[in-house]
């Protein structure tokens, strides 16, 4: 009769354990899908990225078109609870290849070559402009820093569509009212230093 040697028993046990762990563990795609904040949506021949989370995300998009050997890639910073129209046009297939937290958030990319540079820049990257509600209704932009900032806002209808963007110059410690102009919601998208005259 055929006998199983101790070495063969160990080998079979290892193979069986590996097979069971592979079946029980989620695939990398399933694990990534749980943590995804952004998604791509087609809208009338174009595509948009929507960030559903309350944190800024860096999104890497790859677009493959028939007849092109190399895909095109773009990187977008998508602010919390906002959307961005992609610059790709025409036929093709886009997909999100990576999604990372923005600079300053936990898990964000780190400058390994010059870590001191990141520490210095993190002080400069403090968000100065905030959107506050006005007691009588409406919103205003308030700059808490000592330097002038330019803020970009977006007005949307009830469905979150028809986004209209507008930039405002926000002086230090000076509130700037933001009229609704018929929009159902207003969001602060970004801020930069004011342009030098």
Note down, in words, how this protein is organized.
This protein is an alpha+beta fold and 197 residues long. It folds into two domains: 74 residues, Sandwich (Immunoglobulin-like); 68 residues. Helix content is 18%, strand content 39%. The chain has three helices and twelve strands; from the N terminus they run ααββββββαββββββ. The strands form four sheets. It has a three-stranded antiparallel β-sheet, with no helix packed on it. The chain has a three-stranded antiparallel β-sheet with strand order 4-3-6, with no helix packed on it. It has a three-stranded antiparallel β-sheet with strand order 7-8-11, with no helix packed on it. A hairpin with a 7-residue loop joins strand 3 and strand 4. The longest helix is centred in the N-terminal third of the chain and has 19 residues. The protein is globular and about 55 Å long.
The major beta sheet can be summarized as: 3 strands, antiparallel
Helix and strand pattern: HHEEEEEEHEEEEEE
DSSP strand tally: 12
User: Terminal Cα separation, in Å?
Assistant: 94 Å
User: What overall geometry do the principal axes of the alpha carbons give?
Assistant: globular
